Amino acid sequence: MNIKSIISSLSGLLMLAGAAGCDGEKELIIIDGELPIKTSTLYMVGDATPNGWSIDAPTPLSATEEDRLVFTWEGPLNVGEMKLSLTTGSWDIPFIRPINDGEQINKSGLDEVKIKMHAGDPDDKWKVTEAGIYNLRFDLRNLKMSATYVREQDAPVIEPIVADAVYLVGDFNDWNIDSPTEMEKKSDFIFVYEGPLTSGELKACLTTGSWDASFIRPEANGCKIDRNGVENDKFVYSVSPDNKWKVEEPGIYRISLDLQNWTIAAEYTGDFKPAAKLYMIGEATDGGWSWDAATVIEASADNEDLFIWEGELGRGSFKASDVKDFSAPFYRPETANCEVSDKGVASHTMVYTTSPDDQWLVTVAGKYRLTFNIADMTFDAQFLSGSATLPSLYMIGEATAGGWSLDAATEIATETENIYVWEGVLKEGTFKACVTKDFSAPFYRPSTPDCEVSQNGVSSNSMVFTTGPDDQWKVVDAGKYRLTFNIADMTFDAQFIEGVASVKPLYLLGDATPGGWSQDDASQMTAVEGVEGEYTWTGHLNEGQMKAFTDKDPNWGQNFYRPSRANVEISRSGVAASDMVFTNSPDDQWKIVDAGQYELTLNIKTMTINAKFID
Q1: Distance between the two ends of the chain, CA-based, in angstroms?
Q2: What pLDDT is attached to residue 482?
Q3: What is the pTM of this model?
Q4: Cα 312 from Cα 306, distance rounded (Å)
Q5: What is the mean pLDDT of residues 167-177?
């Protein structure tokens, strides 16, 4: 008889034994297939949702009485995107997403389609293509969702908006939410702005400093403002969708907002030719790759084809555009990684193209005077002085202590220009490095996939600085290493120093833990030196469930460390029972009933757990 037959027979005997037991005993349940996503809370976030992209206050769904792992919601969805989270307050957590990016939610609805959960890229989201009242159902037990169109959205309730100040923000003031353009208060509900507007988009707000607030915006996106006034004089006051007015032609305008009747008036009062601008982005700039924080360079007063800027540049790449759009053409060098250093720029030739994505590469940080001449398509860089500070590198990946969390990235500082050196322990797994903590920014990575780092060093020293493909170094021998990143000659070296004790990592998993139910973001415990099998962890636990594991398995087929019976409570008083088992099923978990800071100790040799409530 083979192993499969034996297991099948034993399972049958166990089920018969359960049926013959006393009435109070539960039937043995054998879980087959994908494990459920266990959580007591579920939220949706995105410009399609009522609360927009606010991760601090996303829109909550409600668990059903029949099954606490089935969540529902009914309400208005706008045209836009959305995804779901188990907790609030962080973008580094796993999100529930569609299997296929851009899966549409519209009047046709969705019926029992598959869902997935992961952190980081790819940032797959649902796309609502028709606004309306929808009924959403997320079955986290079977990893499926449904969406049903109910009816059209209700007309907004117009109530007077009481405000001390109203601000305009848009392309005309470079979307500076920290210092938007204040309108003049004419009466309790009438606010007026009279001045220049460039071509582009705009909206209004009552407070500064946050994009998560409600905005005064048109009923439909792209509502036109031109010499004839405004296309539609009605506005709405909402977090989403992110509708904006579109100024069709530059000029001097008088914009009036009536906060009592929710109307807008626009009057063209004179001609205006805005100064031409370039927007410089890249990890070498203060704003990184963010359009909102792009470095603005205005044309010279006596020559609209000449753009001159002075300021600090860090090491890294940059490019420039006359519009804030990643798909638009950019001013860039004619060859990749054209160096900008204390010697100037390697080549003065400049091109204006959408591809290839060539960029200038600053190899010596410092203060520069940059000159873009779009008439003769030349670029010049004059080094003015050295920089007092050198930017750090940040290393992430499962081979590093912080995993894939940018917040917990391994920082590598340097006092030597262009050379970054780090010594420490690497686990088995992959890693890469960046200058800007942004998954969409370029990374330092090997020039070939799965370039191995082992006791023999690194299989290839060649390094590139790109956004894709997502190649990473692969550590095959865990141990202590000395890593050297040379961003001047784009080489990488790994020197194996010594091995580390063969201790498997131990992770905490569950909606009670910071990483939720994502194996990639599971909380790693620390092995206690000198105590065989013992691990500790100190951190915040939410109310919810938790278990532990050593081996990551995308199919969830691994064994877990868990209590010997279901729902053993962990509270201010500690853990209700200290004994522990290592099994695949039944899926018993510890239940945290008092949220707070805990010190946990698990010993996989004695199979015990201890929990100490700190505060």
Answers
A1: 56
A2: 92
A3: 0.48
A4: 20
A5: 91
Both structure tokens of 349: 């030739």
**CB of 362 closer than 8 Å to CB of 340:** yes
Pick from 81, 72, 21, 85: nearest CA to 49? 81
The count of other CB atoms within 10 Å of the CB of residue 168 is: 22
- Which amino acid is it at 577? A
Q: Which two tokens stand for residue 407?
A: 């917040």
How many residues does this entry show for the chain? 615
* Contacts of 129 by beta carbon, 8 Å cutoff, 6+ apart: 79, 104, 105, 106
- As a three-state string, the secondary structure of 125-191 is CEEECCCEEEEEEEECCCCEEEEEEEECCCCCCCCCCCCCCCEEEEHHHCCCCCCCEECEECCCCEE
Q: Which of 29-33, 467-471, 502-506 has the lowest mean pLDDT?
A: 29-33
Buried b (16+ CB within 10 A) or exposed e, 376-398: eeebbbebeeebeebbbbbbbbb
**Spatial separation of the C-alpha atoms in residues 360 and 316, rounded to whole Å:** 8
**How far, in Å, CA of 576 to CA of 570, rounded?**
6
Phi-psi region of 408 (alpha: psi -120 to 50; beta: other; left: phi over 0): alpha
Confidence category of residue 7, pLDDT binned at 50, 70, 90: very low
CA angle at residue 519 from 516 to 522, to 5 degrees?
Answer: 60
Q: Convert 528-546 into a string of H (helix), E (strand) and C (coil).
A: CCCCCCEEEEEEEECCEEE
> What are the two backbone dihedrals, phi and then psi, of residue 290, each rounded to the nearest 5 degrees?
-90, 125
- The tokens for 24 are 């109070």
Q: Are 418 and 363 in contact (CB under 8 A)?
A: yes
Count of CA atoms in the C-beta half-sphere (13 A) of 85: 24
Q: What is the spatial distance between Cα 523 and Cα 181, in angstroms, rounded to a whole number? A: 45
